[in-house]
């Protein structure tokens, strides 16, 4: 917090037109970096420090966020940001400097805190660490709370429900620490990354001994879109589709039908999501789930009122019924056609 104070103080001095006094103006920016890095890092930043600079280096090793030059990306970015801030203040561009602190520098400073919180969500989860000594488990929970607490006001500003849930899971001394498991806690934290001004790539993925921990790879980004909820299992429906394409290409129709009707990769809370279910899902009273939706009703009406029109096509191709009733397993054209319709 005091590092942020030094930068804010520099902006205040900028607005007051007081940039030359010994304890004001750009000197405050220099002091901010001095407090970030400390003296132990040496001239080139490769020493053994204990300040935020050193923390950023440790977490970069854990999360794969080192720069091409070997230093933590956070520290490389912070040097650039602090230097740019000094230029703005010296030029008297006070509002731009203030905006940079809020929109760029504070989010950068927050990255190691988020990385620390994620790391100790895992190390403080007894179910994930069944062989960890009780003392180390306590240590992990204490560290996790320290990291989370340092970012919690920002998280609360973004989403008070997420902040409350994470505090309930991680506050040191809570009766049921990490009761929901580390994966759920991490997903909650990741849901506010965008609001915090950071990306999945900024935080990276947590690894132990070179192996990414299950569920702690670089947070989910789907084709450039960052979800605010955990939909990784939903996205895995494409693995069912991939297997269907492979099995139909190999003319293994039974295997294709199995993955289509039973699913294999996309788990729901109590069952397996299926490709067939997209076309046949109903409500509790048996009504088609999509009934009443504009485009579903349009397609249903066109295909003779069948609520399962899409499934009808696929099952005909898989079972050799309907238009494929006379298809020959020995006919390459028939097999190619069946595969195209099924997929």
Walkthrough of the structure:
The chain has 343 residues and is mainly alpha-helical. The model has no long low-confidence stretch (mean pLDDT 89). It is built from 17 helices and two strands. It starts with a helix and ends with a helix. Strands 1-2 form a two-stranded antiparallel sheet.
Question: What's the structural blueprint in terms of helices and strands?
Answer:
Layout: H1 2-16, H2 26-37, H3 52-63, H4 73-90, H5 94-123, H6 134-158, H7 160-170, H8 182-190, H9 193-196, H10 200-203, E1 207-208, E2 211-212, H11 232-235, H12 237-249, H13 253-262, H14 275-280, H15 294-302, H16 309-319, H17 332-342
Antiparallel strand pairs: 1-2
The helix-strand sequence is HHHHHHHHHHEEHHHHHHH
Main sheet overview: 2 strands, antiparallel
Helix content: 55-70%
Quote the distance from N terminus to C terminus. Answer: 56 Å
Q: Helices and strands: which structural class?
A: mainly alpha
Total number of beta strands: 2
Rg calc: 28 Å
Task: Give the strand line-up of the largest sheet.
Answer: 1-2
pLDDT averaged over residues:
89
Give the overall form. Answer: elongated
Strand content: under 5%
Defining traits:
single chain; two-stranded antiparallel ribbon; 343 residues; elongated
Short description:
By secondary structure, the protein is mostly helical. Helix content is 59%, strand content 1%.
């Amino acid at each position: 917090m005091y590092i942020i104070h030094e930068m804010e103080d520099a902006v205040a001095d900028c607005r007051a037109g007081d940039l030359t006094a010994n304890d004001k103006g750009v000197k405050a920016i220099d002091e901010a970096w001095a407090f970030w890095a400390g003296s132990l890092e040496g001239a080139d930043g490769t020493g053994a420090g204990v300040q935020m600079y050193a923390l950023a280096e440790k977490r970069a090793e854990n999360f794969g966020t080192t720069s091409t030059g070997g230093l933590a990306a956070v520290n490389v970015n912070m040097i650039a940001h602090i230097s740019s801030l000094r230029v703005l203040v010296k030029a008297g561009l006070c509002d731009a400097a203030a905006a940079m602190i809020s929109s760029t520098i504070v989010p950068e400073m927050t990255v190691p805190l988020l990385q620390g919180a994620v790391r100790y969500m895992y190390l403080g989860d007894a179910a994930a660490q069944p062989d960890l000594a009780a003392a180390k488990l306590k240590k992990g929970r204490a560290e996790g709370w320290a990291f989370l607490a340092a970012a919690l006001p920002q998280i609360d500003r973004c989403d008070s429900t997420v902040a409350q849930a994470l505090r309930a899971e991680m506050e040191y001394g809570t009766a049921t620490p990490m009761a929901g498991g580390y994966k759920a806690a991490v997903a909650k934290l990741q849901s506010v990354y965008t609001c915090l001004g950071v990306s999945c790539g900024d935080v990276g993925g947590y690894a132990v001994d070179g192996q990414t921990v299950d569920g702690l790879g670089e947070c989910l980004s789907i084709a450039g879109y960052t979800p605010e909820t955990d939909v990784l299992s939903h996205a895995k429906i494409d693995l069912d589709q991939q297997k269907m394409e492979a099995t139909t290409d190999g003319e293994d129709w039974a295997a294709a039908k199995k993955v289509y009707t039973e699913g294999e990769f996309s788990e729901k809370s109590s069952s397996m999501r299926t490709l067939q279910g997209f076309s046949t899902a109903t409500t509790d009273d048996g009504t088609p789930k999509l009934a009443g939706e504009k485009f579903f009703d349009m397609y249903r009406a066109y295909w003779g009122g069948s609520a399962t029109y899409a499934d009808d096509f696929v099952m005909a191709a898989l079972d050799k019924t309907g238009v494929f009733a006379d298809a020959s397993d020995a006919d390459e054209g028939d097999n190619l056609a069946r595969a195209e319709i099924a997929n």
